[in-house]
Design brief:
Blueprint lengths: L21 H21 L8 E7 L8 E7 L37 H21 L10 H28 L1 H13 L21 H23 L4 H38 L8 H6 L5 H17 L7 H8 L21 E8 L2 E8 L4 H26 L24 E2 L5 E2 L1 H7 L7 H10 L30 E2 L3
Antiparallel strand pairs: 1-2, 1-7, 3-4, 5-6
The structure holds fe (ii) ion (2 copies).
One fe (ii) ion binds next to helix 5 and helix 6.
């Protein structure tokens, strides 16, 4: 079969020749009912019979891989799609640098590989669970559709990881696949594996922040795994990245549209000071300082996903050829890192200092730095909107020491500017930096759904262009009545 095109004749669409891989097909078909139960229990609340204008992957050719059509979400074709195999691909880093990429799991690294796949897999359904109630308060049909697009694709990403587990890890792989359907975001007894995926996504501003900041952590992790010497994992992640780009687009443009609307409303009302929160809120839009607080929260939660700055696990995964660096193949060095160092931010005698650490153990820090750089691009776009509107206000990324639960800064308190402060000062001041319950209540008060085609809630601007170039009043979701 042609790897570019996806076989839709089997129950599970795929480009991995499942119809001739009976055992794996059987395992996946066995897992399917549990997945559908999970989707109906934990997927989007309501709208399951609505027709949603969704894209479905029909090819892995980057020049044209998706097709748009109306689909009921439970009938979405969740498939197993791997990017085409690169001929003669070599392991691009670590102790096995230059050796042919593995087509089977290397026995000595089996446990580590399985763990990384499970951790990645666990985040996918988690975000669907976190976002399940948002359909009820969508600011437009356009946004509602984008939410559901993200949700079905996160579902597909779960399938992607489950395929790897079931095909390459035998019985324990199948057990892990079942566990992925058993854990629940925020559950006291069996939570999802990573902190940020157990937090609430209470409103649409949180959703945009989540897709901007937390999906972007996903992007960095997928890029590192796309470098993997284990070729099936590399190919899986490469295709996932194609879909992931849209998720971050939803976040970036979502925040742009909120900022845009706030600036327009302030201007129309003749408000000169964006920090005049009460007056801005009276206009029914979200004030810029509150947007900054949400940003502080989601950025700091997402930084925790990179793990400890100095980590022997990260070094081991790199040495083993399992998890590389962001854009590994474009970096010019020896790709082994046995003798190099990398500057790491650490607490030294009560101060934040840059300290050179062996590059191998500093890989989490490096990936986090790459992430921060990637995040900064959004600030530029959003701040341009604010300055074009004539306001002297800048959204900024808080210091990496701010509000951390993991790594070097977990036991200290720092301001968003990176100034260390005592516990008492933190307790007194943190509601100025992180969303308070009052802020949450205010945002919640704006979250009334808009469901007529072409309509938008008054706290957010319409997008510049439609999905699939559709006109502004396109009915992205045909809600069943
Ligand atoms: Fe994903
Ligand atoms: Fe995503």
């Amino acid at each position: 079969m042609n790897i570019m095109n996806v076989d839709y004749t089997t129950k599970i669409p795929n480009n991995v020749n499942l119809s001739e891989d009976r055992q794996v097909l059987k395992a996946l078909e066995g897992w399917h009912p549990g997945y559908m139960d999970w989707w109906s229990d934990m997927g989007p609340e309501g709208f399951q019979q609505s027709l949603v204008y969704l894209r479905t992957a029909y090819s892995v050719d980057p020049r044209g891989w998706a097709k748009f059509d109306y689909v009921r979400m439970p009938e979405y074709r969740w498939g197993i799609l791997l990017a085409p195999q690169e001929e003669n691909r070599a392991i691009p880093f670590g102790e096995h640098y230059g050796e042919p990429a593995w087509q089977e799991v290397p026995g000595e690294h089996r446990a580590m590989l399985r763990r990384l796949i499970v951790i990645q897999g666990d985040t996918e359904p988690a975000s669907v669970e976190q976002q399940r109630h948002l359909g009820k308060t969508a600011p437009s049909l356009y946004d509602l559709r984008n939410l559901f697009q993200v949700n079905v694709e996160e579902g597909r990403h779960l399938w992607a990881m489950v395929y790897l587990l079931q095909k390459y890890f035998g019985r324990d792989g199948r057990e892990e696949a079942d566990e992925l359907l058993r854990r629940r975001s925020g559950d006291a007894d069996s939570p999802r594996m990573l902190g940020a995926f157990n937090e609430k996504t209470p409103d649409w501003l949180s959703f945009f922040m989540f897709t901007y900041f937390t999906d972007r952590d996903g992007k960095m992790q997928l890029h590192s795994l796309a470098q993997s010497g284990f070729d099936p994992l590399s190919r899986t992640c490469r295709f996932m990245l194609t879909e992931e780009a849209h998720h971050m687009f939803v976040g970036e443009t979502g925040i742009s549209r909120v900022v845009q609307r706030t600036c327009e409303a302030m201007k129309a009302a003749g408000i000169g000071d964006p920090s005049d929160i009460a007056r801005v809120r009276a206009l029914g839009v979200i004030d810029l300082p509150t947007i900054q607080k949400k940003l502080n929260l989601h950025y700091s939660l997402s930084l925790d996903l990179f793990g400890s700055e100095v980590s022997t696990n990260a070094a081991n995964a790199f040495n083993a050829g399992i998890k590389g660096r962001y854009r590994e193949t474009q970096i010019e060095d020896d790709h082994r890192l046995q003798n190099s160092t990398y500057p790491v931010l650490k607490m030294v005698n009560g101060e934040i200092k840059r300290v050179d650490e062996p590059a191998l153990t500093a890989l989490n820090m490096r990936l986090r730095d790459d992430y921060t750089q990637d995040c900064a691009k959004g600030m530029l776009r959003w701040n341009k909107i604010i300055s074009l509107a004539g306001y002297d206000f800048k959204l900024t990324l808080p210091n990496v020491a701010f509000h951390r639960q993991i790594g070097e800064f977990k036991d200290i308190h720092a301001t968003p500017d990176g100034v260390l402060i005592e516990d008492a000062a933190w307790d007194k001041r943190n509601s100025g930096w992180l969303p308070s319950s009052d802020d949450g209540d205010f945002i919640a008060s704006l979250m009334t759904p808009v469901t007529e085609p072409g309509g938008f809630a008054p706290w957010i601007s319409p997008p510049k262009v439609g999905i699939d170039n559709k006109p502004g009043d396109f009915e992205y979701v045909k809600i069943e009545t």
